[in-house]
């Protein structure tokens, strides 16, 4: 029977490791297990003594928002030797470990695997008689969690820390772009990634850089000539400032490293332009983790404990990683072998093979970047009409990126692209503008919607005017970026084709709303940025904890969908999420009051409840405040914070820009196909797993619960149990009671 679990972090630190440790510790305590933490990685495991200490529920409170790893990490030469590992095994035996959870990169996972392989041998040497500990003598369960900012591990679409590092890079590229633009300079930016180009690749897409150099790109012998031509072309069409992003591990076709100095020299010699180098270095690994890293780490940490308990007869030696948004277990040996195989291909100058091994999403992103850097405004315009692009409803961060990429891809095909001003009302009034190539490139990181958006109450009298606008501007296709209101409007337009011939054109919807309440798509553009905005605000609220005990009710957006409330509670360590899916009952509020009192008496200083704006109609945020205040009997204070529009503001996150770029590209390709084949389908784009695909709008409409205003199937509701379990509702945890 599983009784004791040991958790540690190892190798390079990665933001989100703390969230993983917190989840492991709390889930294990929840199931009645005893937990020990190892300080300073394998070195601590070898050293033993004070480096291995029991961890209680409260020991992992308040760490979810912190960067690095509170357990510390180190590289250990001693653990590489069998004698070192014997000492480690002895220390694990002393604390009665049944399982070890290691959060780290491939080196750390390899170490865990080797220890588990040698375990019977170590046990035989340490306890020759077995001493009645049959199970423990024969095996040590080990579970690895992928912790690496480089995102270079097989078996995980994303490793813990990669999203945070990517956002740091993208923000740095934004900052450098503004100074580059002021001085008409070109910057060569070096990112981390000794053996993996993931960070450089995604930062290029999200930062609208002009060129990228990564170890997985099959370069031609004269690759630099192509780069020079691309930069020159971009300058010719009116963009005098450029970004070139170089991954640390980029190589020439002969295997020699490409250094930023080389790139600078080539560009300066041939173009005679002002060039600066910026090496981003360790800022990429630092800082508070993003919402994505915190949530993924929490999911993986919880799943590790669940897996250990689910099948006690199996010998667990797996790494858990998210693949297509599902937690999947892969044997540790396979993870290490396949991750190292990619590295070997790079070292053997088989860059193309290495890219394939990274997976289809990596290859597709590389080809999208090449397409975007190659394309330029086509000189020849097709005479047969234009495509209109509109953003509808409330603005969502990333809308501009979708418009920018879709429009550039269409312009490249010689199609005239018109931006509809201020949403559907622009079509009614005939307010459209031709989109300019150069301006579009700079839109990638802009908040809001540059062409303007509005919530337009659609009326029947508007139809002839819309048809007239479509005719007047020769519009042969429509791409709409927006939320549920926009879906309804487009469905309505498509439904009136019989009456208005001008409406009989292909239409494509791109899902964009911070509420993430759209059918058939796991993520809509804008939701990731909003989530990050919320957790940053909640982190700040938590920092205000002072001498007085305080409960905060933080109201977040989401309409009838609890995505933002649930995920932000999970990512910020919020003690409770009130969701519209489950509503709020008086009985529940009564229970919450009691738990709250108990928590404060137990020493807690701050409790944060996240309430979705429509969780219930009458138990409003202010009602909950008054109720708690009344019941507190002066034991604690209650405050509210209604985050409102700051949730939708600010520059889009890396994920939102990448999602928007992929969707913009997919929409443009589908539109070009439709114009060529004469198809007049009305379709919606979706993001599921890692892929972007198109479905008929009718299918999306059926997947929506129209009465409730949210999709029938909401994947994140499967995380409610995890979020509840890790929050405060275990004031006295089973393990602590026993000891
Ligand atoms: P990362 O886990 O980030 O890849 P490292 O490669 O430095 O970082 O590995 C972290 C630690 O894991 C090493 O310092 C060492 O103690 C242990 N380790 C790595 N490879 C092995 C191995 N083959 N056998 C035993 N221990 C290893």
Find the CATH topology of the largest domain: Rossmann fold
> How many DSSP E strands?
24
Helix content estimate = 40-55%
Using the 3D structure, state the CATH architecture of the largest domain.
3-Layer(aba) Sandwich
Average of per-residue pLDDT values: 94
As for the number of domains, it is 4
Structure commentary:
By secondary structure, the chain is an alpha/beta fold. It has four domains: 4-160 and 289-323, Rossmann fold; 162-285, Rossmann fold (3-Layer(aba) Sandwich), CATH 3.40.50.460; 386-524 and 652-708, Rossmann fold, CATH 3.40.50.450; 527-650 and 720-727, Phosphofructokinase domain (Rossmann fold), CATH 3.40.50. 44% of the residues lie in helices and 17% in strands. It contains 26 helices and 24 strands. Strand 18 (576-578), helix 21 and strand 19 (606-612) form a beta-alpha-beta unit. Helix 4 (106-126) crosses helix 11. The model is unreliable at 730-739 (pLDDT under 50). Bound molecules: adenosine-5'-diphosphate (ADP). Adenosine-5'-diphosphate (ADP) binds next to helix 4.
